[in-house]
Amino acid sequence: MLIGMPVYDDVEMIDVTAPTTCSRWAGLDVELVTEKPGLVRFRNGFCFEVTKSLKQARRWDAIWVPGGDVTALKRLMGDKVFLEFLKRQSARAKYVASVCEGTMLLAAAKLLDGYTATTHRAFIPCSPLRFIPLDAGHRRTPPPLPSPAAQGHRHRGGERWHRQRPAGWESPSHGQGPRE
Q1: Pairing between strand 154-156 and 95-98?
Q2: Structural domain boundaries of the chain?
Q3: pLDDT band at residue 46 using 50, 70 and 90 as cut-offs
Q4: Backbone angles phi and psi of 145, in degrees to 5
Q5: Residue 178 carries which DSSP code?
Q6: Burial class (CB in 10 A: 0-12, 13-18, 19+), 56
Q7: Quick one: fold of 2-164?
Q8: Helix 70-77 with 80-92: angle, nearest 10 deg
């Protein structure tokens, strides 16, 4: 299986490195592409090299869209070339997935129309006006969600993690821990 990941300057490091590492451990191929091949900067300043452009991407079995800095996302949400690329690849892919704010890129490309999705709660205010209904994913008891099969081939990483946390737990990245 070939998993494709479009990356961009100020992409979130863990959204790229963790799925790439785990996929390769599982014997899956991962292809990173970007608008212009060369050095790509993670959100924290580290750089990595991507040798393929969007035009050089092979046909992917799965597409994984990582999140990133809000300024980078805003730029890409208005980039017709990037959004058309996502549409083309997702039309041929068996699975379409995102993590955290990558959901906003899929929504901007109209790939989540008719689906329920989750994203980081900081992005909730911009979604209802422009895209799709989103669930902040940080409530004590999340609403029941349809199975992945009922959702077609759309999967979101943040939702899976949230639904496996113990009841009463808030995201540690927001300075809160277990409630008593």
Answers
A1: parallel
A2: 2-164
A3: very high
A4: -110, 150
A5: B
A6: exposed
A7: Rossmann fold (3.40.50)
A8: 80
Place of tokens 């902040």: 136
* Encoded tokens for 140: 């004590």
Rounded to whole angstroms, the Cα distance separating 46 from 153 reads: 32
What is the SS3 string spanning 18-76?
HHHHHHHHCCCEEEEEECCCEEEEECCCCEEEECCEHHHCCCCCEEEECCECHHHHHHH
Q: What is the helix, strand, coil percentage profile of the chain, to 5?
A: 35, 20, 40
Do residues 103 and 127 make contact, with C-beta atoms less than 8 angstroms apart?
no
Is-catalytic flag, 100? yes
Rounded Cα distance, 20 and 15, in Å: 9
Output the six-digit token pair for 18: 């963790």
Is the dihedral angle over the CA atoms 5, 97, 114, 170 positive or is it negative? negative
pTM of the model: 0.71
Q: For 12, which DSSP code?
A: -
Q: What is the pLDDT of residues 135-153, one digit of tens each?
A: 544 433 344 444 444 455 5
